[in-house]
Design a protein that fits this description.
Layout lengths: L3 H7 L1 E4 L2 E6 H32 L4 H31 L3 H13 L1 E5 L2 E4 H28 L8 H26 L7 H12 L4 H16 L7 E4 L2 E8 L3 E6 L4 E5 H6 L3 E2 L7 E9 L5 H14 L10 E7 L4 E9 L5 H19 L11 E2 L9 H7 L8 E2 L5 E2 L15 E2 L6 E2 L1 E2 L4 E2 L1
Helix pairs in contact: 2-3, 5-6, 10-11
Length: about 450
């Protein structure tokens, strides 16, 4: 057992039909241990980079950009170390092994006409997709900054033109890149055939969302930056994609909305053509209030609102006569729909303060309770209060609060009412009369 361990450590590694020119001991000393130290150095370098950027007196956005570029350089350096250790370990044999790996990667696993797809082809598609995405974003930014900003177009028109250009550029780059990789585009008919079969098994929603996204881009019911309300959710449109739309709600939550839902359902766009809106503050005043004074106070609050548009005067409406008071509404124009809730809150607070100063009453619901009869004290009630026992069966209150009579059919309680609160019955009595009491 002791002799077999050194032999195992120093024996060459056999991998299938290939024999590597190294042993486990050489693999550990020349590759594993240096790789562990390189990983530790990488982690320390990343932490040091973060601390350095935090101490620099630069903006948070620029510091984050430096950290991302620094981590990218460190990853490339770590990859170079791994490649160098592997080449040092295998020596001249490394090129033979690389050739073998390359042959395996080029072995096609799908052949259709002139199209031969291998693992290497699939790996090469990744940079093509990345380049197509980068080219589409760059073309969109260049079009917006150099051409569209100089034209007299509104935001929705600029968004539609730039979005269409982005997808056109992405499609052209993908077609050109796939052609370079040797993929025959005529073979895409097979793909569309498979897609047609998939539509019958549950892809209808996905395709509907894609076409709905195209409808949104072309017809421009919403655009990025709009304040909208969909299914009782209100927020700002952050990004419009082919399949879904990203919205940031008022509570800073990200909501992903399928485009089909936006096209097929009612949607409230607060900033379709103009971001200014009219807010409404509804309040009730008592019937005894001076309505001219109420109108003057509300107009003063509307004029002092810091979010108000000075070109539009506030308006007061007397809407209805309710049970508790007269309903009044203050209508005020504000500059931006994003400030709606701040403006409404400001008006409500100032209305309360102004009503307190001027003595205008805000009513609340009240009800008058009339009792048809008040139960008088019954025989044995005083004894029951002293002993804690219930009244005798000869007379008293039943479970529903009615007066209980004795065997003769006569009420055993004396006539008359008592003012104040009856401790036994819990009734609160006010003024008495022959027909009942008013509370």
């Amino acid at each position: 057992m002791t002799d077999s361990l050194p032999a195992l450590l120093y024996a060459q590694i056999v991998f299938g039909e290939y024999t590597l020119p190294i042993s486990l001991f050489e693999l550990s000393v020349d590759f594993v241990v240096p790789l562990v130290f390189a990983g530790i150095a990488y982690r320390l370098a990343v932490q040091g980079l973060r601390r350095v950027t935090e101490r620099l007196e630069i903006s948070a956005e620029y510091a984050d950009r430096l950290r991302r570029r620094g981590r990218r350089v460190l990853r490339l350096t770590f990859l170079a170390v791994v490649v160098g250790l592997t080449a040092r370990l295998l020596g001249a044999e490394v090129w033979g092994y690389l050739g073998t790996v390359y042959r395996y990667l080029r072995e096609p696993f799908f052949v259709s006409g002139n199209t031969r797809i291998s693992i290497l082809t699939v790996l090469a598609v990744i940079p093509v997709l990345y380049f197509a995405s980068w080219a589409s974003r760059s073309s969109k930014q260049a079009l917006e900054s150099r051409i569209l900003d100089r034209l007299e177009l509104d935001a929705s028109q600029r968004f539609s033109i730039s979005a269409v250009l982005r997808y056109v550029v992405m499609g052209l780059v993908l077609v050109f890149g796939l052609s370079i990789l040797g993929i025959d585009l005529s073979s895409l008919g097979v793909f569309f055939g498979v897609l047609g079969i998939g539509l019958g098994f549950g892809l209808q929603t996905t395709v509907a969302n894609v076409f709905s996204g195209l409808v949104i881009i072309l017809t421009r019911p919403i655009k990025e930056g709009d304040r909208i309300e969909v299914n009782d959710y209100e927020g700002t449109v952050v990004q419009i994609r082919l399949i879904s739309t990203v919205m940031n709600t008022l509570t800073n939550e990200t909501l992903i909305i399928p485009n089909q839902q936006i096209v097929n359902s009612a949607m409230h766009n607060y900033s379709y053509e103009d971001r200014s809106i009219r807010i409404r503050n509804v309040v009730e005043v008592a019937y005894s209030s001076d309505l001219d004074a109420v109108k003057s106070v509300l107009l003063g609050v509307g004029h002092e609102n810091p979010y108000r548009i000075s070109e539009h005067e506030p308006i007061v409406f007397f809407r209805s006569f309710n049970d508790s008071g007269i309903e009044v509404m203050l209508s005020t124009w504000i500059r931006d729909t994003a400030e709606k809730y701040f403006a409404i809150s400001w008006n409500n607070l100032e209305i309360w303060r102004a009503f307190k100063r001027t003595g205008i009453e805000i009513p609340f619901p009240q009800r008058d309770l009339y009792l048809k009869s008040v139960p008088p004290p019954v025989a044995g009630e005083e004894d029951a209060r002293g002993t804690g026992e219930p009244p005798s069966a000869a007379g008293g209150l039943s479970d529903d609060g009615a007066v209980h009579a004795d065997d003769t059919g006569q009420n055993t309680a004396p006539h008359g009412n008592r003012g104040g609160a009856d401790r036994e019955t819990g009734y609160s009595t006010g003024r008495s009369s022959a027909s009942g009491a008013h509370v």
